[in-house]
Structure formats: structure tokens, C-alpha cells
Amino acid sequence: MVSPPKEESIEETRPEPDASAEGASGAYLIQLARQAMACQFEVYLNASGPGSEADGAVAALDLVNELEQQLSAYRADSEICQLAATAYLRPVPVESRLFQLLELSLQLHRDTHGAFDITAGPLTKVWGFFDREGKVPLESDLADAMALVGSNQIELNSEDQTLSLAREGVELNLGSIGKGYALDRCQEVLLDANVEDFLIHGGTSSVLAHGIRRDGSARDGWEVGVPHPLRPDRRIGTVHLKNEALGTSGAAFQAFFHQGKKYGHVLDPRTGRPATKVLSSTVIAPTAALADALATACYVMGPDETETCLENYPDVSVLLVIEGKRRGSVETIMLGEMSQRLIGTTSTSSE
User: Which domain of life is it from (predicted)?
Assistant: First the structure.
């Protein structure tokens, strides 16, 4: 994803000034990493100052651990799981920032006509993706899961900041927006610490960049590679991010085969089945939460629905990669300003 000229990898430490980095006029990067949310979060800083900026990066990564305890669908004692366990009985108070995230999730559900849905957890489980053991479900089991899916079963009371669920068994799963939200919160910590130039990512699929990469080049912002959906060693191209975020969704490497057919992990909550319209979707948006969520939604919706959806998001750009006419090839569809943003596009052949 990120191609820095040189990095200093640091885990839970505060780096000291480095003579070689200082002499390179900020060409080197300092990297701080933390394992969280089933992936690696990393913060990249320009290694051109005294090193105190790393304190802010450590504080940001500390926050990611706190947010995981709040947002994880894999922890029975997380706030999101505790809410689902009781909110069908009575309205339950929700922490203010989490309430805002839930409001955004419901707005996205409406704008995408159900393609983005934080209640799709039962589908993930019935298809075996929750436990990373993919399987084709029985139609009866799929129907039971679908009965529990639909964000219309969530009621938010903005006055009291409470959550109610329509029935027992409705789940809340923020997996398609949680990492992006965490990056947005990390940015707040870094900016509060007077850190202006940084790139942060969660598992490489969610990226947020602020300020510029001080490497002596004339480029504005931070260079980020857009991965090829079929060849992990290749890129579709690169974009430069500045004070914005990028999210990518694809199912090429989280899938299983059954009777010769491939089933990917990105499910369409409207049908209950794996989405198949595109190979990958990449979204550039003002916030990482929005980029993260729309990347999933656009993958589900495909080109036509995505184009219509973007009427509500004029500051969002989308790249969709679909199968090409020749076997083993891919084609790109660029919406919004993506055609002006994507540079160095490689060959569309995956062979």
C-alpha cells in the first residue's frame, strides 16, 4: 500500500532523533504499529523533527485498543454486543460518539437502499465467514438469518441518545465502518498533539492521510497504492491523499469454493448472498468512516447503483474494478473525480 523510501519500525516505543533521517531532510519515515481489530494499525510520521510527535502517535494507537473493546463483534463484553443483548428489551443509553456512528450507519443504509447494513451479522455467521470457515448455508438457515437483518429494526432516540432493537437476535456489527471510524478518532488525537503530517492505516484497506509527506518531492499529500483485486503483487495505480481518506473492499482473498463456484465474504444484505457485481471497490472520501463504509456498499451495489448513490456524495470518488472481456483481465470504472485522482494505471491484465 504505502511505499516509503525507508522506515524505522517501532512498537510501543518513543523514537529518539535519528541523525541519518535528519540529514535526509525528512526523507525517512518513522513507523509505529499496533495489533488491533484483527489487523495491524500503523502510523507514519516524517522523521524530520525532534521525535516528540511520536507521543501523539502512541496515544492514537492506545485509543484504537479502547475502541476495539467498544466496537468489536467478536467480544461478548464489548459495548456493541452488550447493547444488542439488551436493547430489544428496553431503550439503552449509548455513548455519545458511538451514537453518532450509529446515526451515520443508518443514514448510509438509507442512501445505499440497504446495501450497507450494520445488522448483517447473522448472514456472516450463517455463511461461516464469522469463524473464517466458509460454507453454503441451507435455504432454511439463510431465511432465518435474513429475518434478523435490516437496519429498519434499529431505533435511535436522538433526544435521549438511546438505542432500541425491534426483536431479540438482531445484531450490531460495525465491521464495515469500525476501522475507518477508529482512524478518524486517531486523527483527532494526532491533531490535538499538534501533529500535522501523518498517514495512518488499519490493515491497509482503510487509510487516512493528513498534511504532506516531506521527502523533498513536489507531490502534494501522501502517495497510496490502489491494489489489484486479483494480483496482490500489482497495483491498479496510485493516488495522492491529503486531509482525506481511502477505503478498499474486495473478496478475492477471503472466499471459498463449493462445487466449483467461488463465494466471497462481502455479502449483499438485501439478498443474503455474496455480492458478485465487481471485483473490488476503492473510495476516496473526506472521512475514513465514510470511505470504509462506502467501499463496502459500492462493492455490493455495483456500477449503476453506485453512480446513483454518489448524487448524495459529491465529494466522494469511486474506482470499481470488474472482470474484463478477456479471461484473466480486468477493467476499471471511475466515478466522481477518480479519473483525475488515479495515476500510473497499470495494465488491466491479471495474467
Answer: Bacteria
Whether 9 has a binding-site annotation, put simply, is no
The span from the CA of 206 to the CA of 293, in Å, is 10
Dihedral over Cα of 189, 191, 195, 197: its sign: positive
Q: How far apart are CA 123 and CA 19, in angstroms?
A: 53
β-strands 29-36, 7-10: how paired?
Answer: parallel
| Residues 343/334, Cβ–Cβ less than 8 Å | no
Q: Is 204 annotated as a binding residue?
A: no
CATH classification number, 79-165, choose in 3.30.10.20, 1.10.3980.10, 3.40.50.410, 1.20.1740.10: 1.10.3980.10
* Pair 49, 18: CB distance under 8 Å: no
Instruction: Report the mean per-residue pLDDT for the chain.
Output: 87
What's the pLDDT tens digit per position in 92-145?
999 999 999 999 999 999 999 999 999 999 999 999 998 888 899 999 999 999
The residue ranges of every structural domain in the chain are: 1-73+174-218, 79-165, 220-351
Partner residues linked to 51 by β-bridges: none
Task: Provide the whole-model pTM.
Answer: 0.89
The Cα 143–Cα 196 span in angstroms is 49
Burial of 184 (0-12, 13-18, 19+ CB in 10 A): buried
220-351 maps to CATH 3.10.520.10:
yes
Strand 154-157 versus strand 162-165 pairing type: antiparallel
Q: Which regions of the chain does DSSP assign to beta strands (E)?
A: 7-10, 29-36, 39-46, 92-93, 154-157, 162-165, 198-202, 206-210, 222-227, 235-241, 244-250, 255-258, 261-264, 267-268, 273-274, 280-285, 317-323, 330-335
Q: Is 308 annotated as a binding residue?
A: no
Q: What is the pLDDT of residues 10-45, one digit of tens each?
A: 333 222 222 233 333 446 888 999 999 989 999 999
As a whole-number percent, the residues of the chain with pLDDT over 90 amount to 72
Q: How far apart are the C-alpha atoms of 181 and 270, rounded to whole Å?
A: 24
